[in-house]
């Protein structure tokens, strides 16, 4: 009986862990991208959630060459631009999105005080 409980627990743990790794983002529309991001973030621990959102920002701004690129596009300020992000993460998994963000020339960080204020 004890072995059955351990096996059941392992199956549940593997099922939860694989959900984010098997999910593939649909970036065909801004709405489908946003829905995918919401779906994934619900399954993440707080640290992973922050890491994932920072990855999305790095991906969003990866093609920005100057401040003028951002100023000329008001959708790039103070929000996620799911249309831009969707074009870049379409067909990728959670793990692949994190890997893509690491290749971005844009580096994103969060100050410890910003986390504590929330």
Protein architecture, described:
The chain is mainly α and 118 residues long. It has one domain. The chain has helices at residues 2-22, 30-42, 46-60, 67-71, 82-89, 94-103, 112-117. The protein is globular and about 35 Å long.
Distance between the termini: 44 Å
Report the biggest beta sheet as strand number plus sense, adding barrel if it closes.
none
> Which blocks of ≥5 consecutive residues have pLDDT under 50?
4-8
The proportion of residues in beta strands is: under 5%
Give the oligomer, counting copies of the same chain as homo and different chains as hetero: single chain
Q: Compute the number of structural domains.
A: 1
User: Could you estimate the helical fraction of the residues in percent?
Assistant: 55-70%
List the helices and strands in order. HHHHHHH
Using the CA coordinates, give the radius of gyration.
Answer: 17 Å
Can you give keywords for this protein?
single chain, 118 residues, mainly alpha, 7 helices
Task: Please specify the SSE layout and strand pairing.
Layout: H1 2-22, H2 30-42, H3 46-60, H4 67-71, H5 82-89, H6 94-103, H7 112-117
In brief:
By secondary structure, the protein is mainly alpha-helical.
